[in-house]
Amino acid sequence: MKEERAIESGVDLVLVNSPLKDYDQEPRRNNFTLPTLGLAYIATCANRSGFAVRVLDAEARGLGLSQVAALLNRVGPRWVGLNLLAPTYVHSVRLLQQLDPAISVMLGGHQAKALPRSILEDFRIPRIDALVLGEAETRVPRLLGDKRSRGELPGVFWREGQTAVMPSVRAKDPLLLAPDLDAMPLLDRSHLDHDPYSDGGVLESAMVASRGCPFDCSFCGAAVSSNPDITIRMRKPDSIMAEALDLGTRLGVQRVRFVDDLFLANQRLMRTTLSAFVDARLDMRWDATGRISSAFGAMAARVLSSGS
């Protein structure tokens, strides 16, 4: 288990992954949580822009809501950001009710994108200074630099008093909504409590090779109809290999797990990525989740030879 990173006083932003349960009421019983790659990417990009941003994974640390609120109020960041998800929404609301009023509030996540007006009009939440829809790596540094920029940024709403402010701002720069994956810095994994992690004695890290999904499943927040502003983007093989090599040489990672929505179903992505693994001759294995039929046929030999 990695040592938990301390959060210093007076940072610009603390991004919080709310707990699945209020661990003030009962202790956390499992000892692993999927790494919050999205929050860590935002923190990494904001750090590169010169801001002090930290991630507090309350689920991974098994913290109760009162513990999270006490920590945040003690360190006093300028902003606190929460990723709103259906399973943790009620806990996020209760946490926001306990925050020092001097702290600005930034919200995002799947729930924010699916139901922005409902969230802005949920007056159990004391204040909302920025509701950021979708991928936020390029917009969060702008907000940290000047809160007033929210009126110029696409997909950023807020509340003034009891009024939901939802301006229609056209994205003059497409990178504000769909960042260039190859241009982003390598993920700073000091923001992750459970990555790398040991899986049966094998040290594994999670990676993302693409963003966006071409399918339109009605039950999924990643459905293409729910994300018309998002283009499907694939990282270049040299970008993926640079991260894999860094993980292996610097952190001793032995296996990477691709956590893309449909890594195995994207034949083009698989073909280029697996060929890069073969050509690089890395002493590393990989895995991913998907339908077994995705790996049948001519691709099966490439999957096996690349180290799956």
From TrEMBL:
Tagged with keyword Nucleus: no
Alphabetic keyword roster: Iron, Iron-sulfur, Metal-binding, S-adenosyl-L-methionine
Molecular function in Gene Ontology: catalytic activity; cobalamin binding; iron-sulfur cluster binding; metal ion binding
Domain of life: Bacteria
Cofactor: [4Fe-4S] cluster
Domain B12-binding: 11-154
Classification via PANTHER family: ANAEROBIC MAGNESIUM-PROTOPORPHYRIN IX MONOMETHYL ESTER CYCLASE-RELATED, BLL1977 PROTEIN
Protein name: B12 binding domain-containing protein
Upper lineage: Bacteria, Pseudomonadati, Pseudomonadota, Alphaproteobacteria, Hyphomicrobiales
